[in-house]
């Protein structure tokens, strides 16, 4: 190594979990492995757009090879802090240390420090000795040190330092230089870049983390440990050869889609509609030759094919801006699960079984798309003693990379991702591994469906994420049926500000989007291009529909002619006839849905949902496997392709108002904010145009009583009524009152779709200083509404990481105190929820997963391990409920079994132990309420 010492290979990098009959894996070998993997990730995993952005952030535009070498150097130095007192944290590791180093144990073990922090504070000096910053400018070296310090997913303050005794004396300093020199040499002595801007450094940190994990897999390390090449250069060449296999086995390979024509790509009969055709023809011209990305807002009524429109836009944008694949993000797990199936079909038609599509949300691994052997995996050895002790803390540290490489988080890294928006929004919260999330998202086209469905808190986080994506030149597609212009304007401006436009300049502009249609805004120039007027009018004519809106005053639980349940029965009476028909009844709470379902089941069909009755119930308080099955039944029964039932009434909650592709002859809904009523109405006669052209399923048309699309709104507020107490704070009282007034003022009780949609949305949801202070009780409701929105935006602003161009030190991304992990920071305000498992306590002392007593509660091994199949069996039966339900409960009464307390997923469950007496399941009193899982109605709370 020239003037430098040879690296002492007794300095270990990996020990725990490896062959104990051999010395631990040498640190220098691990550093070379990581450097080789980072180079391969640059070549095949990063998109062209990402490579350009990193090189640009280093001041190396047009010199990607130099930027590539710097990325390899960052990965190759990531564990340099292990040449320190870290070497003495493992008894087995220190046994193999050479005599020259092993004798320093007493002096170096007095202080403890994470090796990531030790690396942060030692790398700059090492790089200076290597001549990396030969011109005397250490800023790039200092930024590289921040990257090294962040390789465990959390950036640290540069201020402060590490106890000199922990870093050791001159011999240890020489070894740090020797290890770095080995990496520096195989990379061809990279030159320091002229600059290293923070956004680029964040992406590089993501590459370093991923490279480290890929080469830290237990099986791989054991194989290398048994056959070390004598020469380090040969070891490095072998690492380069192994990298493609490791990436492929992790499901992270990239492929080019075999693009097909519209009908073949999406399995849709007929031609694309005018909106879709305009994107295919006109968006390409608006985008031009490409540059730094752009943002496309697509607006259209529910059922207008926005999902396929987005995928066609992605085709144009990815080709122009050099992204690979896409992330398709939605509001809920249920909508994500359904969209996953649709996207899987589209990819299968264009790329065969090799398309790397995955699903990401907190329970994605329970989806049938994942087999048990997808989740059983060898460990990734990253926690060697200084990050966490034994027990649950150590277990959690071990599981972080496993979840990314094999578990439920891998979809973010895979080429094609469908999932919930909260998984993306954590990229701009101060949580561990937010840099890895930004890496995962910045290589894809970013698609957000149902952009109107997010509260002010999440809108701020979405805006902050768009700011970062704008800085990275990532093309973005936003889809919405009912997005207020003020919100879309703010989101577009956040993206442009990230792309480099000044806020003062943007404040003088607005970006009105046509409805229906699309607006594309170029990131470089800020130029806005809308859909052509001709295509917009053509789309409006093609999807024109007059929605009859009937307002029915109701009283909740009051009896008499206005009794809500009686009114619903009367409205649905035509379905009892020979022609039957289909209806969707949307309730605002689970309790109302359960009560409505019972009443209609008694009236229309004594059979339950489980028995195949014509009245079905769908809400979020079913065990996961039951909810998935019911969602599938509902979407098949009311879907586009049939077979269509003669008679079907679906009683549901808000779970059906977003992205579920349903068509009912009639929709009945509780009063809700107007934008949501329009979403619910979008499930009425949704496929009429398609069926009129291509034929109805089973050749059976609409029943004679269904003369046209009709939405019936059950209105408790009109005439001086009040918001039902059981609705709580589900919706703003002000928005409900504003919606009530707007509905009362409708001309002829009809809404022209799409013509009236945007105006109605702006009337209720738009930014307006106008308020009628003479409205009885209105001032209080309006003030509460405005105060809540301001509080939510403020809270999000406080929690979110700074805008991309405002970051100076990388620690700004983790400025909140404490070691925040992903489950500790919610992306939904008020999303304080827990997962509940309902089990059955039998009189003979057994506890089982089923009331019949055939499936005992599985037990974990002493170390908390449990077969994935058993964990899945438990978790698929859980559901999300409010944590506040258990605030007054005895913690031990709802605690999981003792053997689960070391398991990272099972340990946090709440367990409802329902007594079984004489074959009958009894309710359990929790706080002031009783809970019981009813097989037909789901979890009942009284």
Keywords:
7-stranded mixed β-sheet, globular, 35 helices, alpha/beta, 41% helix, 13% strand
Task: Furnish the topology, listing elements before pairings.
Elements: E1 12-14, E2 25-26, H1 27-45, H2 48-57, H3 64-76, H4 91-95, H5 99-102, H6 105-108, H7 115-130, H8 139-149, H9 164-167, H10 170-186, H11 198-214, H12 218-225, H13 232-249, H14 262-266, H15 274-287, E3 294-299, H16 306-321, E4 326-330, H17 333-351, E5 357-360, H18 372-375, H19 392-405, H20 410-413, E6 416-420, H21 421-425, H22 434-442, E7 445-448, H23 456-471, E8 476-480, H24 485-498, H25 503-507, E9 517-522, E10 528-530, H26 533-542, E11 545-553, H27 564-572, E12 581-586, H28 590-604, E13 615-618, H29 624-637, E14 647-652, E15 666-670, H30 674-681, H31 688-694, E16 710-715, H32 733-744, E17 750-753, H33 757-765, H34 778-799, E18 833-842, E19 847-848, H35 868-875, E20 878-882, E21 910-917, E22 920-921, E23 924-926, E24 929-934, E25 938-941
Parallel strand pairs: 3-8, 4-6, 4-7, 5-6, 7-8, 11-16, 12-14, 12-15, 13-14, 15-16, 18-21
Antiparallel strand pairs: 1-2, 3-9, 9-10, 11-17, 18-19, 18-20, 21-22, 23-24, 24-25
